[in-house]
Amino acid sequence: xxxxxxxxxxxxxxxxxxxxxxxxxxxxxxxxxxxxxxxxxxxxxxxxxxxxxxxxxxxxxxxxxxxxxxxxxxxxxxxxxxxxxxxxxxxxxxxxxxxxxxxxxxxxxxxxxxxxxxxxxxxxxxxxxxxxxxxxxxxxxxxxxxxxxxxxxxxxxxxxxxxxxxxxxxxxxxxxxxxxxxxxxxxxxxxxxxxxxxxxxxxxxxxxxxxxxxxxxxxxxx
Length: 222
Prior knowledge:
By secondary structure, the chain is of the alpha/beta class. It has helices at about 15-25, 45-50, 65-80, 95-100, 120-130, 165-185, and strands at about 5-10, 30-35, 55, 85-90, 105-110, 135-140, 150-155, 190-195, 195-200, 210-215. The strands form 2 sheets. Strands 3-2-1-4-5-6-7-10 form an 8-stranded mixed beta sheet, sandwiched between helices. A two-stranded antiparallel sheet has the order 8-9.
């Protein structure tokens, strides 16, 4: 049975599109009930509309308190009967008002190998620091920024002549592959959190060719 999914976006929504595509080809068992943006010009809203998905815009600048903004998000998600929330480039810190009713059911994708380079402009942080391996992380969301238990990570090479744009493009390609994979594992009820460790039942311990850990599974590794 498909998991009822809500997606929060702030910008282009390329990870949202990857999720939509995987639902469309049958490799992700999810029913995207609603896509919510905090900016009316977020391209992610248009992507959702083109896919026939219900959309809403809740402008954070219209709420004097962060908790009131979060309460409205919760209302819309619960109204849509959402069970799992995916943050796809959603540039807001969520408060306990949001996280409590969706405890253990909010996931995020971050363009770095956490716990390295949390926060904004992670691609620039990595390029500027001269890392040799960069990457991305799908993790559960808790009350601290980019802190919750890690579900899957993927590494990509970083080169001396990389800048934020070139490295970011390489990372983004892997984001589009590991985020749907993590959501599929959750949809299949294969994910268990033990302390800070996430155990994926049936996942191989062998490192995949795409440097994802746990390794990607078909059709995501094609």
